[in-house]
């Protein structure tokens, strides 16, 4: 990950933080990180958002992607040579037919977790324990999705397959953990009011599908809740899209002015039409656990942001300002609109979704502001739902 940043312990209240080890210029990539484990969301996959089963790279061509989102098979995209998808490299697992973007991803998945999770000929058998687990999860967790039970399944499978099991357990234990009360809150947030019964049902199905003596603690009610809270707290949304890759490539084309205007108008209209048809669900979406990124604390005036410019699970952290050696690197857990709201509104969202109150310089400067939200903010109050948070998390 290069040595531009390192994690350090701050305090028991704040936990870890990420700090610059050298001066970083605005616009520079602080690091590129691959997740220890990641997984596409289950509804996302069910609705034919086709992604590599390992790295989440979008598998459709930009044109197929646009046709599906528009519900219009006749659409033709100009500049098809700007699409980066290489179908000739795609491979399937010979036993269960899940698709990968390359031989490398198929191999990586097989070596890390897929031997345990491969459904083989039972892929479409609703009575298979793993299918029962996924079905139960989908019935509890409708879009917009923020997490996946399969992230936990891949953690267990990884340790089951590993020669050095302790190394992986250590790797997973680096992620911030919560107190029992906080865990309850996170589970409640993910599963809603019936969470106690639902969590127990998931635990029984999870045990039936994946039980392992070595990890027996993870299958107890307390251990399972902790594991669940761990992915709820640390899961970073991942978004990929062959269409957005194509758009970025088109933006970079050197075109005569008239052609440039035509292309820009075409793209603008395309996105408007897609929004009417598919709403905000444009990307292949999933989540992953990233060791360094999970150490980044929140600020309402962040000096860095995450993105997925390679159309796969590789997370890029980019500096939004010059950052000096020794300075803490912070990202924002809120989207742009939410960051513009009052301190009271911002902290309401942060408390509900991330269980903390912010004390960044902006919040401290506004500490004496009245604790009421203005009228127009009250009206917008209902809109700040998980979809918006999720949007920010998965910006491609």
From TrEMBL:
Question: Region (Disordered): which ranges?
Answer: 370-396
Q: Which GO terms describe its cellular component?
A: cytoplasm
Q: Which organism is it from?
A: Gymnorhina tibicen (Australian magpie)
* EC number of this enzyme: 2.1.1.359, 2.1.1.372
Tree of life domain: Eukaryota
What is an annotated GO biological process for this record, any one? methylation
| SUPFAM superfamilies named among the record's database cross-references | SET domain (SSF82199)
- Keyword entries, A-Z: Cytoplasm, Metal-binding, Methyltransferase, S-adenosyl-L-methionine, Transferase, Zinc, Zinc-finger
Q: Which residues form the SET domain?
A: 5-334
- Where does the protein principally reside? cytoplasm
Under InterPro entries, the record lists: SET_dom, SET_dom_sf, SMYD5_SET, TPR-like_helical_dom_sf
The places in or outside the cell where this protein is found are: Cytoplasm
Q: Which catalysed reactions does the entry list for this protein?
A: L-lysyl(36)-[histone H3] + 3 S-adenosyl-L-methionine = N(6),N(6),N(6)-trimethyl-L-lysyl(36)-[histone H3] + 3 S-adenosyl-L-homocysteine + 3 H(+); L-lysyl-[protein] + 3 S-adenosyl-L-methionine = N(6),N(6),N(6)-trimethyl-L-lysyl-[protein] + 3 S-adenosyl-L-homocysteine + 3 H(+); L-lysyl(20)-[histone H4] + 3 S-adenosyl-L-methionine = N(6),N(6),N(6)-trimethyl-L-lysyl(20)-[histone H4] + 3 S-adenosyl-L-homocysteine + 3 H(+)
Keyword Iron assigned to the entry: answer is no
Q: Which GO terms describe its molecular function?
A: histone H3K36 trimethyltransferase activity; histone H4K20 trimethyltransferase activity; zinc ion binding
What name does UniProt use for this protein? Protein-lysine N-trimethyltransferase SMYD5
Q: What is this protein's gene name?
A: Smyd5
């Amino acid at each position: 990950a290069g040595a531009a940043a390192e994690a350090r312990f701050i305090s028991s209240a704040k936990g870890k933080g990420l700090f610059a080890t050298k001066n970083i210029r605005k616009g520079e990539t602080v690091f590129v990180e691959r997740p220890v484990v990641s997984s596409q969301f289950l509804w996302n996959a069910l609705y034919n958002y086709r992604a590599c089963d390992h790295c989440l790279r979008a598998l459709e061509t930009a044109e197929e992607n646009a046709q599906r989102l528009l519900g219009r098979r006749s659409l033709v995209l100009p500049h098809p040579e700007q699409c980066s998808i290489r179908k000739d490299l795609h491979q399937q697992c010979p036993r269960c037919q899940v698709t990968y973007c390359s031989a490398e991803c198929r191999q990586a998945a097989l070596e890390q977790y897929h031997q345990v999770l491969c459904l083989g000929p039972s892929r479409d058998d609703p009575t298979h324990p793993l299918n029962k687990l996924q079905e139960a999860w989908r019935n509890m967790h409708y879009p917009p999705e923020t997490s996946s039970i399969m992230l936990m399944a891949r953690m267990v499978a990884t340790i089951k397959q590993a020669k050095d099991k302790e190394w992986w357990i250590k790797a997973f234990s680096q992620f911030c953990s919560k107190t029992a009360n906080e865990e309850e809150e996170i589970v409640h947030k993910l599963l809603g009011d019936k969470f106690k019964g639902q969590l127990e049902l998931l635990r029984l199905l999870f045990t039936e599908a994946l039980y392992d003596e070595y990890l027996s603690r993870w299958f107890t009610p307390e251990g399972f809740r902790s594991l669940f809270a761990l992915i709820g707290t640390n899961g970073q949304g991942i978004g990929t899209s062959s269409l957005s890759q194509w758009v970025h490539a088109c933006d970079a084309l050197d075109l005569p002015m008239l052609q440039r205007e035509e292309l820009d108008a075409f793209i603008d209209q395309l996105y408007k039409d897609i929004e009417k048809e598919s709403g905000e669900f444009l990307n292949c979406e999933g989540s992953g656990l990233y060791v360094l990124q999970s150490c980044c604390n929140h600020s309402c005036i962040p000096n860095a942001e995450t993105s997925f410019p390679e159309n796969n699970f590789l997370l890029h952290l980019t500096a939004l300002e010059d950052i000096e050696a020794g300075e803490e690197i912070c990202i924002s857990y809120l989207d742009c609109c939410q960051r513009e709201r009052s301190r009271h509104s911002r902290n309401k969202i942060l408390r509900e979704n991330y269980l903390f109150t912010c004390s960044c310089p902006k919040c401290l400067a506004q500490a004496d502001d009245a604790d009421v939200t203005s009228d127009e903010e009250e009206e917008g109050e209902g809109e700040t739902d998980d979809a918006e948070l999720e949007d920010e998390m998965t910006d491609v």
